[in-house]
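Much of our argument rests on the idea that a fold can be written as discrete symbols. In the encoding step, the backbone of a single protein was reduced to a row of integers, each denoting a local shape. We regard such an encoding as a compact summary of how the chain folds. The record that follows shows the chain in one-letter code together with its fold in token form:
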Amino acid sequence: MTTARLPLFPLNSVLFPGLVLPLNIFEERYRAMMRELLKTPEDEPRRFAVVTIRDGHEVAPSAPGIPDPTAVPELGPAAGFGTDPLRSFHKVGCVADAATIRERADGTFEVLATGTTRARLLSVDASGPFLTAELEPVLEAPGEEAGALAEGVLRAFRQYQKRLAGARERSLATGAELPDEPGVVSYLVAAAMMLDTPTKQRLLQAPDTASRLRDELKLLRTETAIIRNLPSLPAAELTRGPTHLN
């Protein structure tokens, strides 16, 4: 299977194919990454890989603190990820395409990227100004009864939306029709649900679309029941994740 080496962007959240990812870039290692991506012609994809942090810090400490106020902050591309960065990340991530990279006057960047395809992390290189990784694509089969499962998930998701809207006393209308292609449905619902990071990571690395949809159907029923009894959960825009401070 063909592999690729891409810049690596670790986050405390999960990026799914099709999800829009806003980034506010201020750390030097990621500024260097964006400057490198800007060298790619505008008519070509500016790709980097997003992986979820298993053990580490999304933003490296920049000053001494607890428990040792005299400790010198870590520097470099692997700061916050230990001596073996590969062990700090989940192994299945998502390739992103940076459609917009805007440099501000102070040298920071505003970036808008979109998840494209899943990829498996094979190795991490910390020898340059930012992390890079060798990755291989993770292909996905539809699995059995993916179409029927997608229909069931969409029905359950609409009920989830209604409960969530009621809990917030607001409408969750997005102005867009929900898709019906099973793979797209599975990623959209995984991204839009209010779930913890380990659960979202589990959905990302599901072996096939049908398995992800089955898992989502159970989660939707459980979460809808919780909202019914505890109407205080936040709402979210369906295709956009939170803006990350690196």
